[in-house]
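Hi R.,

Quick one: here's the Acetyltransferase (GNAT) family protein sequence you asked about.
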Amino acid sequence: MVIHNLANRPDLLEPALALGDIGAEFMQHDPIGDLTRARRLARRWPEFFLVVLDEGEPVARAVGIPLAFPAEDRTELPEHGWDGAILWAVQDALDGRAPTALCALDVQVARARRGQGVAAAALTALRECAREQGLSRLVVPVRPTGKRDHPRVPMAEYLTWRRADGLPGDPWLRTHERLGARLVKIAPFAMTITGTLAQWRDWTGLALADGENEVDGGLVPVLASTAQDVGVYVEPNVWLEHPL
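And here's the predicted structure, written out as C-alpha coordinates:
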Protein backbone atom coordinates (compact mmCIF):
# COMPACT_ATOMS: atom_id res chain seq x y z
CA MET A 1 0.00 0.00 0.00
CA VAL A 2 1.08 3.55 -0.78
CA ILE A 3 0.08 6.67 1.17
CA HIS A 4 -0.35 10.13 -0.36
CA ASN A 5 -1.59 13.40 1.11
CA LEU A 6 -3.73 15.89 -0.76
CA ALA A 7 -0.99 18.51 -0.69
CA ASN A 8 0.90 16.29 -3.12
CA ARG A 9 -2.05 14.59 -4.82
CA PRO A 10 -5.09 16.90 -4.84
CA ASP A 11 -6.59 14.73 -7.56
CA LEU A 12 -7.30 12.06 -4.93
CA LEU A 13 -9.93 14.12 -3.11
CA GLU A 14 -12.95 12.91 -5.06
CA PRO A 15 -11.95 9.21 -4.96
CA ALA A 16 -11.32 9.60 -1.21
CA LEU A 17 -14.74 11.12 -0.64
CA ALA A 18 -16.35 8.31 -2.63
CA LEU A 19 -15.26 5.89 0.09
CA GLY A 20 -18.30 7.03 2.12
CA ASP A 21 -19.11 8.75 5.40
CA ILE A 22 -19.02 7.70 9.02
CA GLY A 23 -22.34 7.23 10.73
CA ALA A 24 -26.03 7.54 9.93
CA GLU A 25 -27.78 10.50 8.30
CA PHE A 26 -28.40 12.29 11.59
CA MET A 27 -24.65 12.34 12.21
CA GLN A 28 -24.31 14.83 9.35
CA HIS A 29 -26.22 17.47 11.32
CA ASP A 30 -23.73 18.28 14.06
CA PRO A 31 -23.22 22.06 13.66
CA ILE A 32 -19.62 21.83 14.91
CA GLY A 33 -18.93 19.11 12.39
CA ASP A 34 -19.91 21.55 9.63
CA LEU A 35 -16.62 23.32 10.32
CA THR A 36 -14.68 20.27 9.20
CA ARG A 37 -16.44 18.95 6.14
CA ALA A 38 -13.95 17.03 4.03
CA ARG A 39 -13.63 19.68 1.33
CA ARG A 40 -12.83 22.34 3.93
CA LEU A 41 -10.15 20.15 5.47
CA ALA A 42 -8.73 19.39 2.05
CA ARG A 43 -8.34 23.12 1.39
CA ARG A 44 -7.09 24.16 4.82
CA TRP A 45 -4.92 21.22 5.89
CA PRO A 46 -4.24 19.06 2.81
CA GLU A 47 -1.01 17.77 4.36
CA PHE A 48 -3.09 16.01 7.04
CA PHE A 49 -5.61 14.50 4.59
CA LEU A 50 -4.16 11.10 3.69
CA VAL A 51 -5.32 8.62 1.08
CA VAL A 52 -4.26 4.97 1.11
CA LEU A 53 -3.80 3.37 -2.30
CA ASP A 54 -3.52 -0.32 -3.07
CA GLU A 55 -2.40 -1.05 -6.63
CA GLY A 56 -3.39 2.50 -7.51
CA GLU A 57 -6.92 2.25 -6.10
CA PRO A 58 -7.99 4.36 -3.06
CA VAL A 59 -8.92 1.95 -0.27
CA ALA A 60 -8.97 4.31 2.74
CA ARG A 61 -8.63 7.88 3.89
CA ALA A 62 -7.30 9.20 7.20
CA VAL A 63 -7.86 12.81 8.17
CA GLY A 64 -6.46 14.82 11.06
CA ILE A 65 -6.47 18.41 12.29
CA PRO A 66 -3.56 20.14 14.05
CA LEU A 67 -4.05 21.83 17.40
CA ALA A 68 -2.14 23.02 20.43
CA PHE A 69 -2.14 20.42 23.21
CA PRO A 70 -1.10 20.32 25.94
CA ALA A 71 -0.89 24.00 26.79
CA GLU A 72 -1.22 26.21 29.84
CA ASP A 73 -4.92 26.67 29.11
CA ARG A 74 -5.39 23.08 27.88
CA THR A 75 -4.12 20.64 30.45
CA GLU A 76 -6.63 17.90 29.56
CA LEU A 77 -8.32 16.75 26.40
CA PRO A 78 -11.79 18.29 26.09
CA GLU A 79 -14.85 16.70 27.62
CA HIS A 80 -16.61 17.61 24.38
CA GLY A 81 -14.33 15.23 22.50
CA TRP A 82 -14.76 15.44 18.73
CA ASP A 83 -16.60 18.77 18.87
CA GLY A 84 -14.12 20.19 21.36
CA ALA A 85 -11.10 19.23 19.27
CA ILE A 86 -12.59 20.88 16.20
CA LEU A 87 -13.20 24.11 18.12
CA TRP A 88 -9.62 24.07 19.43
CA ALA A 89 -8.21 23.61 15.92
CA VAL A 90 -10.36 26.40 14.48
CA GLN A 91 -9.45 28.73 17.35
CA ASP A 92 -5.76 28.01 16.82
CA ALA A 93 -6.02 28.61 13.08
CA LEU A 94 -7.78 31.95 13.62
CA ASP A 95 -5.33 33.01 16.34
CA GLY A 96 -2.22 31.88 14.46
CA ARG A 97 -1.29 29.57 17.33
CA ALA A 98 1.32 26.95 16.50
CA PRO A 99 -0.01 23.38 16.78
CA THR A 100 1.79 20.73 18.79
CA ALA A 101 -0.52 17.74 18.31
CA LEU A 102 -2.58 16.04 15.62
CA CYS A 103 -6.15 14.94 16.29
CA ALA A 104 -7.50 12.18 14.03
CA LEU A 105 -11.06 12.94 12.97
CA ASP A 106 -11.92 10.46 10.25
CA VAL A 107 -10.64 7.07 9.17
CA GLN A 108 -12.78 5.52 6.45
CA VAL A 109 -12.04 2.20 4.75
CA ALA A 110 -13.67 0.94 1.56
CA ARG A 111 -16.38 -1.53 2.51
CA ALA A 112 -14.83 -4.38 0.55
CA ARG A 113 -11.48 -3.89 2.31
CA ARG A 114 -12.62 -3.80 5.92
CA GLY A 115 -11.12 -6.34 8.28
CA GLN A 116 -7.94 -6.62 6.19
CA GLY A 117 -5.63 -4.36 8.19
CA VAL A 118 -6.20 -1.28 6.03
CA ALA A 119 -7.45 0.82 8.96
CA ALA A 120 -4.30 0.01 10.92
CA ALA A 121 -2.19 1.12 7.97
CA ALA A 122 -4.13 4.38 7.77
CA LEU A 123 -3.68 5.07 11.49
CA THR A 124 0.03 4.28 11.25
CA ALA A 125 0.29 6.75 8.37
CA LEU A 126 -1.32 9.46 10.50
CA ARG A 127 1.24 8.81 13.23
CA GLU A 128 4.07 9.12 10.73
CA CYS A 129 2.50 12.27 9.31
CA ALA A 130 2.35 13.85 12.78
CA ARG A 131 6.02 13.07 13.33
CA GLU A 132 7.02 14.43 9.93
CA GLN A 133 5.18 17.68 10.66
CA GLY A 134 7.04 18.10 13.95
CA LEU A 135 4.05 17.36 16.18
CA SER A 136 4.49 15.53 19.46
CA ARG A 137 1.17 13.70 19.91
CA LEU A 138 -1.57 11.90 18.03
CA VAL A 139 -4.89 11.90 19.88
CA VAL A 140 -8.13 10.34 18.72
CA PRO A 141 -11.73 10.82 19.92
CA VAL A 142 -12.73 7.25 19.08
CA ARG A 143 -16.31 6.34 18.26
CA PRO A 144 -16.48 2.64 19.24
CA THR A 145 -18.19 0.92 16.33
CA GLY A 146 -19.80 -1.85 18.38
CA LYS A 147 -21.41 0.53 20.88
CA ARG A 148 -24.31 1.16 18.49
CA ASP A 149 -25.49 -2.39 19.25
CA HIS A 150 -25.66 -1.51 22.96
CA PRO A 151 -27.05 2.05 23.14
CA ARG A 152 -28.29 1.75 26.73
CA VAL A 153 -25.03 0.42 28.15
CA PRO A 154 -22.98 3.22 29.78
CA MET A 155 -19.70 3.85 28.00
CA ALA A 156 -17.72 3.20 31.20
CA GLU A 157 -19.25 -0.26 31.40
CA TYR A 158 -18.78 -0.91 27.69
CA LEU A 159 -15.06 -0.24 28.02
CA THR A 160 -14.74 -3.06 30.56
CA TRP A 161 -15.84 -5.63 27.99
CA ARG A 162 -12.73 -7.59 27.00
CA ARG A 163 -12.09 -10.73 25.00
CA ALA A 164 -10.37 -13.80 26.41
CA ASP A 165 -7.06 -12.54 24.99
CA GLY A 166 -7.41 -9.33 26.99
CA LEU A 167 -8.09 -7.06 24.01
CA PRO A 168 -11.20 -4.83 23.86
CA GLY A 169 -14.42 -6.43 22.75
CA ASP A 170 -15.04 -3.46 20.46
CA PRO A 171 -13.33 -3.97 17.07
CA TRP A 172 -12.34 -0.33 16.50
CA LEU A 173 -10.93 0.07 20.00
CA ARG A 174 -9.12 -3.23 19.45
CA THR A 175 -7.44 -1.89 16.29
CA HIS A 176 -6.17 1.15 18.17
CA GLU A 177 -4.94 -0.85 21.16
CA ARG A 178 -3.05 -3.27 18.94
CA LEU A 179 -1.16 -0.25 17.59
CA GLY A 180 -0.18 0.76 21.11
CA ALA A 181 -2.80 3.41 21.82
CA ARG A 182 -3.65 4.06 25.45
CA LEU A 183 -6.97 5.05 26.94
CA VAL A 184 -6.96 8.62 28.26
CA LYS A 185 -10.58 9.14 29.30
CA ILE A 186 -14.19 9.13 28.19
CA ALA A 187 -15.44 12.25 26.40
CA PRO A 188 -19.06 12.33 27.62
CA PHE A 189 -20.22 15.12 25.29
CA ALA A 190 -18.23 14.33 22.16
CA MET A 191 -20.99 15.28 19.73
CA THR A 192 -24.31 17.04 20.29
CA ILE A 193 -27.07 17.06 17.69
CA THR A 194 -30.40 18.79 18.20
CA GLY A 195 -33.43 19.03 15.95
CA THR A 196 -37.17 19.31 15.85
CA LEU A 197 -39.17 16.10 15.90
CA ALA A 198 -39.92 16.61 12.20
CA GLN A 199 -36.20 16.87 11.49
CA TRP A 200 -35.49 13.69 13.43
CA ARG A 201 -38.24 11.95 11.45
CA ASP A 202 -36.52 13.03 8.23
CA TRP A 203 -33.12 11.90 9.53
CA THR A 204 -34.17 8.55 11.00
CA GLY A 205 -37.62 7.71 9.63
CA LEU A 206 -38.90 7.51 13.22
CA ALA A 207 -41.51 9.50 15.11
CA LEU A 208 -39.75 10.12 18.41
CA ALA A 209 -41.73 9.67 21.62
CA ASP A 210 -41.19 11.44 24.94
CA GLY A 211 -38.09 10.16 26.68
CA GLU A 212 -35.30 7.98 25.30
CA ASN A 213 -35.48 6.72 21.73
CA GLU A 214 -33.07 4.27 20.15
CA VAL A 215 -32.15 5.14 16.57
CA ASP A 216 -30.12 3.20 14.01
CA GLY A 217 -26.47 4.13 14.24
CA GLY A 218 -26.79 5.87 17.61
CA LEU A 219 -24.36 4.98 20.37
CA VAL A 220 -26.89 6.27 22.90
CA PRO A 221 -30.63 7.03 22.70
CA VAL A 222 -32.04 10.35 21.53
CA LEU A 223 -33.82 12.24 24.32
CA ALA A 224 -37.06 13.76 23.00
CA SER A 225 -39.75 16.10 24.28
CA THR A 226 -42.99 16.39 22.34
CA ALA A 227 -44.04 19.41 24.42
CA GLN A 228 -40.88 21.29 23.40
CA ASP A 229 -40.72 19.72 19.93
CA VAL A 230 -37.08 18.83 20.26
CA GLY A 231 -34.82 15.80 20.15
CA VAL A 232 -31.29 15.89 21.57
CA TYR A 233 -28.52 13.38 20.91
CA VAL A 234 -25.40 13.63 23.09
CA GLU A 235 -22.83 11.05 22.08
CA PRO A 236 -19.92 9.90 24.25
CA ASN A 237 -16.61 8.96 22.65
CA VAL A 238 -13.31 7.70 24.04
CA TRP A 239 -10.08 9.68 23.99
CA LEU A 240 -7.05 7.58 23.03
CA GLU A 241 -3.44 8.64 22.51
CA HIS A 242 -1.05 6.92 20.12
CA PRO A 243 2.65 6.84 20.85
CA LEU A 244 4.87 8.76 18.44
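Residues 120 and 175 are 7 Å apart (CA to CA).

Cheers,
M.
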